[in-house]
Structure formats: C-alpha cells, structure tokens
Amino acid sequence: MNQPTFTVMSDLYNRIFVRQISNPDILVDYAVWNRILESLPKEYKLPDEAVTNI
User: Fold this and answer.
1) Cβ distance 50 to 41 under 8 Å?
2) Cβ proximity of 30 and 6 under 8 Å
3) Could you give phi then psi for residue 51, rounded to 5 degrees?
4) Are 26 and 13 in contact (CB under 8 A)?
5) What is the 3-state secondary structure (H, E, C) of 6-27?
6) CA 16, 17, 20, 24 torsion: positive or negative?
7) Are 15 and 41 in contact (CB under 8 A)?
8) pTM over 0.85
C-alpha cells in the first residue's frame, strides 16, 4: 500500500545547489528528497563545480 505524499517547499533543499534560488511555489516529496540528501556526500553541490570548471 502506498503512503500519502508529504510535500514541503523545495527551498528546504537549496543547500545542494551552487546557485540557491528561492522557489516557494515548488513543492517536493519530503521522503524522496530526504533520501536523496542522505545518499549525497556532505559537501556535494549541483551542478558539480569540478565538472563545470573544466
């Protein structure tokens, strides 16, 4: 059985983006994004600056 989706403002996850732009109208699945954050290295950023600086 699927559990109901709990959505939160996407701004809660801005820390993983190099350019942190507020998007209060965008809601994301809390459980999915927390799983994503838990799987990333602590200092990970999107886009990956090591790649974009080539």
Assistant:
1) no
2) yes
3) -80, -45
4) no
5) CEEEHHHHHHHECCCCCCCCCE
6) negative
7) no
8) no
CA distance 44 to 34: 14
Residue 9 tokens, joined: 């403002």
Q: What is the pLDDT of residue 12?
A: 95
pLDDT tens for each residue of 1-53:
577 789 999 999 999 998 899 999 999 999 999 999 999 998 888 887 777 77
Q: Structure tokens of 19?
A: 């350019």
Residue 52's pLDDT is 75
